[in-house]
Amino acid sequence: MRPLHSLILITLLLPALATAQEMPPSQVIVTKVVHEEIAQNQSMIGTLYYERVSHVSSELAGLVAEVHIKEGDQIKQGASVIVLNTEILDLDIKLTKTRIDQIALRIEKAEKNFKRLERLYAKDGVSEKDYEDALYSFQDLNKEKLATEDALQKLLVQKKRSNIKAPFDGLVLSKNVDLGDWIHQGKEIVTIGSTNDLFVQVPVGETMLRHITIGDSVPVNINAFDRELTGTIHAIAPKADPQTKNVFLKVKIPAQKDIAENMSATIFVAASSKKMLAIIPRDALIKFQGKDFIYTVKEGKAAILPVNIVAFLGQRVGVDNPYIVPGLPVVIEGNERLRPDQPVVVTGEK
Q: Domain-by-domain residue ranges, the chain?
């Protein structure tokens, strides 16, 4: 008596079987099945968000003279975001520098006068009061010069901070000012999400936590682009949802250039203890009527087998069918044009 899965396959693929014998041999490349100790995983839908977000504000009041960003821009740390008008500030800086030069001339004159009186005082040529007045005048001018130089440094700092820059590499999430706007001190002007702190927040059942370890790598799919990548379980939220009892996992993923906050992502989370699974490349999978199959080679012909995927591992999958044994050759190139029982020639193995 034939196994049930064989009867189902014969029924589904009967038209293809009739023509397969007449088709010429197809060239294929195969790989061998291996067994690994892997946990079954379950797909969960999560939400992309930035763990580190800067609400950039202005330390100064002023008129917006330049705007270098727009919402959605990728921006590097230290890049200019907004520049304030500094015409009045530039005049104050120029005036303060002139005052410093004037004080320097007065110091030069006061120093000469003090040294002259110092020589005379040593010979009792001037009174002690005249000598001390010259000394205090010389010292006072030096103090005045230092204070004016400090005032200049303050103005220069203000000018530097008139050019508002990005605090880190990031994505511009929002922009609240435009050219010609007057902004007040402390006003939030732009929000930037750190591209190096991109996470997926995904709810999982509390009973799954026994199979999850901080630091584990997990497959992630950015659904908008069907983009596969690897994330790392970074943390488990300390508070469960009071109704569903779900707990949020925080999964860190590599920086992405074209995503938007709150996009969805599919995370494959461990749902069992580790066990031995047959590991095959995803290139070996073919779809037929919504189900997953692979081709193997038996006596020079293509043989089709259904597979039950229980673990997604990036470019590989884990299956638990007992007939998918270690060393079984599976077709990874040329399988898209095969038919069951079609003659095949194996031209390579990876």
A: 4-41+274-349, 43-51+194-270, 53-85+165-193, 87-161
For 240-255, b/e burial (b = at least 16 CB within 10 A) is beeeeebbbbbbbbee
pLDDT of residue 259: 87
How does DSSP assign 255-276, residue by residue? Answer: --SS--TT-EEEEEEEEEEEEE
Question: Is 69 in contact with 55 (CB distance < 8 Å)?
Answer: no
Mean pLDDT of 115-121: 91
The answer, yes or no, to whether residue 166 has pLDDT greater than 80, is yes
Q: In this structure, what token pair is assigned to residue 60? A: 């100064």
Classify 80 as helix, strand or coil.
strand
| Structure confidence at residue 12 (pLDDT) | 52
**CATH domain 53-85+165-193 topology:** OB fold (Dihydrolipoamide Acetyltransferase, E2P) (2.40.50)
Specify the CATH number of the domain 4-41+274-349. 2.40.420.20
**Burial class (CB within 10 angstroms; exposed 0-12, middle 13-18, buried 19+) of 74:** middle
Task: Name residue, tokens 């038996």.
Answer: 298
Quick one: pLDDT at residue 23? 67
pTM greater than the 0.85 cutoff:
no
CB-count burial class (<10 Å; 0-12, 13-18, 19+) for 331: buried
| Residue 15: C-alpha distances to residues 21, 81, 295, 300, 342 (Å) | 11, 65, 17, 21, 13
| CATH level 3 topology of 43-51+194-270 | Elongation Factor Tu (Ef-tu); domain 3 (2.40.30)
Q: What is the pLDDT of residues 244-272, one digit of tens each?
A: 999 999 999 999 988 889 999 999 999 88
Question: What's the pLDDT score for residue 16?
Answer: 52
Helix (H) or strand (E) holding 202: strand 198-204
Does residue 8 carry a pLDDT above 80? no
Sequence letter at residue 63: L
